[in-house]
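Quick question about two entries, pasted in order.
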Amino acid sequence: MTDVVAERAERIDLAHHEHVERLALSAGFSDAVAFRDAYHAENLTDRSWAIPAHGRAADYLNGCADAGRTPDATELAKIDPALPADRVAELLTMDDANVSELRTYAEQVGNNSADRVRAAELHTEYVKLTGTGIATSNDKTPIGASPSGVLYCQNRQAPARLRIEPYVTFPVDVLPEPIRSFVAAGAESMIVDPAFIALPLLSALAATIGGARKVSLPGGWSAPSIVWTAIIGESGTRKTPAVELATAPLSRINSEQQRQNAKALKDHEAALDRYDRDKRIWKSSKGHSDPPEKPDALRLIRHVVNDATVEALAPILADNPRGVLVARDELSGWCAGFDRYSGGHGGDRASWLSMWTGAAVTVDRKTGNSRVIHVPSAIVSVTGGIQPGILDRMFDRADRDSGLLARLLVAMPPRRPKVFTDKSIPERDHQRIRTLFERLRDLDFAYDIDGNPEPRAVRLTTAAQTQWRTFVNEHGEAQAAFTGDLAAAYSKLESYAARLALIVHCVRRAMSESPPQTEAVDRESIDAGVTLVQWFAREARRLYAFLGTSDADRAVMPLIEKIANSGGSVGIRDWQRTRAHPTADAAERELRELVEAGLGEWMTPRQDGPGRPPSKRFVLHALPKADETDNTKPRVAMP
């Protein structure tokens, strides 16, 4: 270990201070004595960064920052002879290379060095973000920066109940073509988060593949092509148009199939009429000839259904081994169906829990020709939208304890303002997505010894198996950190990684001009499934944190997220425009309520010289940082 690295680490430790007047370039002092003598710093603790609080050197650095000018090392050394020019040069150039050396040092010496490195990392990001490292708050609370670039009051914390992780946009890039372009173009044309298109599209793709494929995994178990998704947003967030757009390709196939079904039904009824006539003639002839043969029962193909009761689904599933998609504008209707025939006791819940795994379902009916309907493998994917408050009411504690809610992949992006756009999805993207669905619909089945259709099992390549084992181990470790609702959600996410990988595999193969003769899920598809599950894990944590809050807290959450997405601070005039407040006083009053709720505080920029006083800004208290909130997500090395 070189002396210079040790010296830098020592200086970072020294610069790790609190209750200083200004925040700027961390590190760069020769030793603690020089720091205290030059800048009169006393009673220092261990949790912040510091620059000169007084003196001509501080004025010089502040003046350079305010003017957007790069400080000169030689000039600063002349102003304060206590700082050697080479040390000043290092002070002014704390960059990624320095941070990298400090990280290496921290790994070798341990102790509290990781905190020192974290300070340098955060500060480096702050300088990149703002062009300067100087800011202050009214009570001299230092201003920090999260790895995502969100500023916050460093030594203050938002109330724990409101510390919901910031939203991260759905990872569109991990999707294969043509669904990647379709999702991106659809989100842009509708002014919605890509998740509003991607989630119902994943459910529709899963339903189209359905009972034709399953993925075989190491350890002797398999995962079906079943995906349940819910997009969560308030009324007016364009959930319904997003679901309709994403499910339109399968709905189009379903509509064409219904036309064929209508013709088949008409022909079948005519065949039954002929059978009844021939049977009467046969009886009148006293059976001197062979009796007429009764037409086989008609199987009506379905792809999309709306009535989600198990009793209504059973005969449809008996005729459709590929399965169906339950698509609802409002998933509250799906939930309400659980109690329709059970006297409010949720009799359908147990059946739905089984159907998520593709298990067999047997239904005893009170009416109809078939009193008992047995479905050997119930393949049902589900999608729809729901408002957050309704979701909280519809999925009660029993639903959470049973794992019903945990079976849903969710997305709860912040609300986007509606603006005019003349953008639309290119016709080429529409055509490609239609072609994809048609090819997936035509996937063939395997058959058992009795000739009954069953899913064709798709194995993993050797490289994919290695990647899968790594994911399972790391995901299991992450799951062990949770209890209750999140533990249940994480247990289902493991299966979803395989299911999503299967969908990615089938999409890639369907659109390939020359697919391999041997069908196997490769590492690229597994990596895609794992990446998507990591995103869904984050959304699960956000959802359950939200469900643990009161109505009053929920009212301010969109405001917190809006400010966080704006960089963590906002001026009164900017807030007035953002929130369409009639006056600046109204905007300031709303921000003041956030201050009084302990969610942030006012920050007034320093004024140098005469002129108009700078306007104060609202700065959020610390929100969860990526290294605090994401430490349990599985991380699998990508190729």
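Here is the second entry:
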Amino acid sequence: MPKPTSTQGYNGNPLLPLPHEEIALTAEELAEYIKCQDDPIYFISNYVKIKQVDPDETGSRIVKFNPYPYQEDIINTLQSERYVIAKLPRQCGKSTVIVCGYFLWYILFNTDVSVALLANQEDTAIMLLDRLKESYEMLPRFMKQGVEKWDQKLIKLANKCRVRAAATSASAIRGDTFNIVFLDEFAHVQTNIALEFMASVFPVISSGKTTKLFIVSTPNGYNLFYKLFTDAVQNRNDYKHLAYTWRDVFKARNPNGTEAEALKWMEDTIKAMANDRSKFQQEFECDFLGSANSLIAPWKLGQLAYVPPTECRGRLRIYKQPVHLTDEEQAHVYIVTCDVAQGQDKDSSVLQAVDITTKPFKQVAVYQDSTIKPAQLAPVAVQLCRYYNNAFLFFEINSEAFATAQLCHEELEYENMIFCHMHKKKGQQLSAGFHQSARLGLKSTEATKRIGCTGLKSLIENDQLLVQDYDTIQQLTTFVGKLNKRTGLATIYEAEIGNHDDCVTPLVLLGWLTIQQGFENYIGLSMRKLLMEGQKPGQMPELDMTPDTIFLDPTYTEQPAVVDRVQGFDVVDDKDFWLN
């Protein structure tokens, strides 16, 4: 292909100057250039043009972009802060002000900088880059830089600045370096991809001194975006948070509009969305809502608030230490429910420790591991139960879990386990362990799941169970009903496609227990007997197993000698290790 001439422009486009094209600036143009270089809002307000859907009075769809006050706040925040997370409604012009406005200014008035435009889908990222290209082409020539590359996913200018578009993934920008990484609609990226991306990319971003990360999205459930935004609001991370709703947008576009007009717009929009008010709440009110048809009502999910664990020991997240027997206080009663996975790095094995002494019941610890084998989980479960005052241990004994439960009871000789037996008419019932058909744990069936879900729903919605673990709350939002084709009603609850319910299943077991008639007597009598056996306050229960199995504490400075290491947990020769 022949080299394009100056009159043709790059690839024959006269709106794209060539890399070495010289442009003579008048004194007025030079003064304007300096003003724009110093003030991005001045540049955007006076020189950036965009294409709109509806033509103006003259019939033109190309209009000058005049940012609203809330959009100016976004620009100023992007300019002054390194990490920014913004919760924004639909149709607020977020991509226009950030991509066509701020990023265009950034690559024109800096040298040798790069921007990554990442979206939940590659087509969306390419569309964002196309909008930036359009705004660039409509600039006056004295504001432009020469073009070296003008591809679908990458542009490079003569000042060595570049912009790259890609889908958000763990390998999207691996091996590349950027001054700004922009994540659009991050809440709509699959949770596993979002986690992998942050794990692989954020260390590179944080290692630089000036590299910036901008995360922008409308809410979409209780995922990583929700966690990052909530942590920013609570000052638990370094992000500067921004939040606007449809009211801010309506007020900016209709400065003289009345409340009645705003409410009419809201009602008209809801009607256009098939009267789906929950969808309007999410898309325009920017509320974090769970999935449709979730077990826990959306209004209650919105009230659940996670807290960071007080301590992490490997895969164990501790939210509250056990309360032992003292002269001033009775020892608390705990129950540990268990869901066992295969340990193939897909589903996780989860132990949920719950304080059932207080009302409401309180979630005090969660152990979660996707790689631990069923046999390896047994000593971990026993050790956790012993730590929490010889807590009651309850298994769902389908498939691999039965072997794990047998190991706990027979090999590790843990006696404080819950048994069930089959009643001819009532189905599975709690057992003291002496019934001829008694067996360890509960065999999960459609009937037991339905009863357990009913109990869990009652506990949470009536404030009788305090859930504070992030992963548990997140999975509750995607724990939805599977509709019966004949009745159209939800009969079985399970995780949505692409999500997990490993943290929820142990709580379903707790829900089943609380509905059983003998639950209170079963727990109370057994625990009182246990506490009268002379256990000293703060003493770790002895485990008749050498060496003990415990969780590795990363904050412990003088660690005992490791005798052996097994996948999922450490074997440490020190019985007082948990107390440090």
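Reply: Residues 219 and 282 are 6 Å apart (CA to CA). DSSP finds 17 helices and 25 strands in the chain. Hope that helps.
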